[in-house]
Amino acid sequence: MWLEEDWVRIEKHNTVAYLLSPPIEADQALAISAAALALIERLVQGGATAVKSESAGVAHGLDEWLRLARTKALRQAWMRRPIEDDGVLYSCGMHLLGLPDVECVGGFPDREAVVWMDAVADAALAGRTLAHEFSMDDHSPARKMKSVSCERYADDDFFFNPYGYVRLAA
After folding, report:
1. Cβ-Cβ contacts under 8 Å for 19 (sequence gap 6 or more)
2. Percent helix, strand and coil across the chain, each to the nearest 5
3. What does the pLDDT look like over 116-166, one tens digit per residue?
4. Is 30 exposed, middle or buried (0-12, 13-18, 19+ CB in 10 A)?
5. pLDDT of 64-78, one tens digit each?
6. Statement: the pTM of the whole predicted model exceeds 0.85
7. Helix (H) or strand (E) run with residue 91 in it
8. What is the SS3 assignment for 139?
9. Which residues contact 7 (CB under 8 A, 6 or more apart)?
10. Burial class (CB in 10 A: 0-12, 13-18, 19+), 123
């Protein structure tokens, strides 16, 4: 969530700092992403005017970064969604957690796609095996699902996900 004061701070900024990490391996991704979120919390508390994750293409207002850090909400911090490309709704940023992103194809409305993306990502974070069908709960329909490679971005692009995508069909 962005507040008016976030925009004012951004307009008045005069310094940019980039924090770089080595390539993040899947078995270290959660720890590194948690450490990055804790670092962001310290930067905000120390006077940072804005924070953006170039690797996920996501920015939050300062209060939101603090909330995410306090609650250790890694998916919410790093996963950007929905992004639309030629009728496909997809997420970006799950590579920072060592997991595939999520695509919704076949006519998902934006809000419904976000609910499904979040459910699949949360299931993956919880260690749930994602097979050929996925259902959020006993009351939701099962969606056909398959794993696909990341062909949307070049392998040297910040947004490239080496773990691919989980594609859900409406």
Report:
1. 36, 39
2. 40, 20, 40
3. 999 999 999 999 988 899 998 889 889 999 999 999 999 999 999 999 999
4. middle
5. 999 999 999 999 999
6. yes
7. strand 88-92
8. coil
9. none
10. middle
